[in-house]
Amino acid sequence: MPQAAIVAGSAVAAGAAVAAAAILIAEYLRRGEAPLPVDRQFADFKQFVERNEALRKELEESRRTILSHEHELVELRRRLQSTDAAIENAPLFKVVLTGGPCGGKTTAKAEIKARFESLGFLVLCGVEAATLLFGGGVPFPHDEASRMLLQRTILKLQMSLEDMLEEIGRASGRPTLILLDRGALDGKAYVSEYEWELLLDDVKLTTVLLRDQRYDAIIHLVTAAQGAESFYTLANNETRIETPDEAREQDRRTLDAWTGHEHLYIVDNSTSFDEKIRRAVARISRLVGAPAPLALTRKFLLARPPSVEELEMHLERFESFEVDTTYLRSTEKPAPAGKPGSMVSEKHRVRRRQQGTNTSFQHQMWVTEKQASGQEETHMIEKTLNAREYYILLKQRDPDRCTISKTLSCFIWGTSYWELNAFKGAKHVAILEVEAESRDCELCFPEFLPVVREVTDEQTFDSYLIARELEIEVSRMEIEVSRSASADLSGRGSTSPPPRPASGLGEMPPRPSSAIGSLRAAASATIAANRMANVFETLERSSGVIRRSPGE
Predict the structure, then answer these.
(1) Are 199 and 343 in the same domain?
(2) What keyword terms does UniProt attach to this protein (predicted)?
């Protein structure tokens, strides 16, 4: 440092000391006190400066501490936001294991827990509310009043346990599988229809709410008393008191209670017990997105869709839904590294299923890996959607395929869960579907339905191709109606074509406000009414269900 600067700094410091001393002397004079000796004044001043310096350092340290805490708060806020996002996005699945007594629920629960924990899932297992109560000393009911009280208690306890498990699962921020030993609707199998309605009214709930809006899948493990009688035992459950006949009846009533759920899967005793458990695991794998081989969906052509009166006459119970199926844009890309020459294609569709005022939504994806050798392997992944997710995906609809509308009726016949598809616009054709373990397994067909033949391998009856045919028919009819409308309006100075009819949900034709608006609305209504009828009439004739008219 230059000498001049050192001298100047010393002068400034000396000046400050003199000024401070002068201030002290003036203070003493103001108070009428004699000034202190210079050396004392200097010592006091030195202490003053040292205290100020200590305070300055303390304030600086406090400032650094505050800044550090601010950084910690910012980091904590970021982590909380990240945790909230993880909690919101982490998938959670609720699966009910149900069925008649001695169906294998305990073993299945242990196998499923081990399997999905190894895949990184947090698996939360719910206990059966009834077993919890009976094991705690609650007596079996002896009259209607005590039976109603017990069922109401079981229902409330069951739902409370489920809600707590769901809260824990969502707070974890991890993919979660909640595995329940029976569900809220199981109680319906233990009371009469009248008692069940009284119970629901008392707790302000509905069957549809409990069945369709609480659980992602229902796995019904058929009692060993039906098909594996030699393995039926009361020894492994102290609360089990049913005879084989009573167990079979309880199994049937439980199936009836859950009939109509979007994902009700029946796992019967047609195979070994180990294979039975494997089939249950495979069902859940498909639900949560873990690849699992597809079960074979077998399709059968009916000569005509049965009437509601016929279903009511021949079935103890069935549930009907209005379903809209929309295919989304498909994708194809090279397989991941390590599989040269292989391609992976994805086919997507979304479904809207409505029963009365209750609506549910679903996304299905088929992933097909085509190997260089020509072999193909397909897996299906399913996911339940909320309304917002459904309408967002609907914007990705395949423009080359129309939405298919149908009435879906679900029912139990034998030990199988059947789905009857009656397409809107089809007068003579309906498709009966059932999931089977193999093409050769024996099926017990509903005897009142006019089955023509199996069409599992006939692409003509594939919904993906039917949606394409519908779009072609719509395009053809649009051209014809547009030409007709142009000709009718040529004298009025307008040749605007009619709008495209609603082919997806939420798309409605504009409200007519003039002559052209009226023609447009009429054209859209005509197309909507006839597009499926034309396609299905062609399908009916080509399949041989109805014969051609003379002269055709």
Answers:
(1) no
(2) Coiled coil
Q: Residue 278 falls within a domain, yes or no?
A: yes
The answer to whether 244 touches 394, Cβ cutoff 8 Å, is no
Pair (218, 365) in one structural domain: no
253 and 171 fall within a common domain: yes
| Model pLDDT, residue 113 | 86
Q: Is residue 210 part of a domain?
A: yes
Q: Say if residues 498 and 488 touch (Cβ distance below 8 Å).
A: no
Which of 71-75, 195-199, 234-238 has the least mean pLDDT?
234-238
* CA 376 vs CA 279, 292, 368, 372: distances in Å: 22, 14, 7, 9
For the chain, count helices (H), then strands (E): 13, 15
Range of the domain at 388: 329-396
Spatial distance between the Cα atoms of 16 and 171, rounded to a whole number of angstroms: 64
Report the distance separating Cα 126 and Cα 186, nearest Å.
14
Distance CA 434, CA 205 (A): 31
In 414-542, which ranges are E strands? Answer: 416-423, 430-436, 451-454
Strand, helix or coil for residue 489 = helix
Q: What span, in angstroms and rounded, lies between the C-alpha atoms of 493 and 479?
A: 20
Structure tokens at 307: 């009437």
165 domain residue, yes or no: yes
- Of the three residues 292, 318, 347, the one that is the final residue of a domain is 292
pLDDT of residue 407: 92
Residues 63 and 144 in one domain: no
Q: Which residue has the tokens 């020509």?
A: 374
In this predicted structure, the answer to whether residue 541 has a pLDDT above a threshold of 70 is no
Closest of 378, 402, 520, 380 to residue 466, by C-alpha: 402
Question: Do 71 and 122 fall within a single domain?
Answer: no
Residue 334 within any structural domain of the chain: yes
| CA–CA separation, 104 and 94 (whole Å) | 19
Would you place residue 512 in the very low, low, confident or very high pLDDT band (cuts 50, 70, 90)? very low
Q: Which of 341, 362, 396 is the last residue of a domain?
A: 396
> Are residue 275 and residue 141 in the same domain, yes or no?
yes
121 and 249 in a common domain: yes
- Report d(CA 90, CA 94) in Å as an integer: 13
- Residues 206-235 have pLDDT tens digits of 888 899 889 999 999 999 888 888 777 765
Q: Is the model's pLDDT at 522 over the cut of 60?
A: no
> Residues 249, 127: contact at Cβ < 8 Å?
no
Better-predicted residue by pLDDT, 153 or 40: 153
Please give the distance of CA 71 from its chain centroid, rounded to a whole number.
39
What do you get for the CA distance between the two ends of the chain, in Å? 113
**In the beta sheet, which residues pair with residue 377?**
369
CATH code for the domain in which residue 246 is found: 3.40.50.300
Overall domain count for the chain: 4
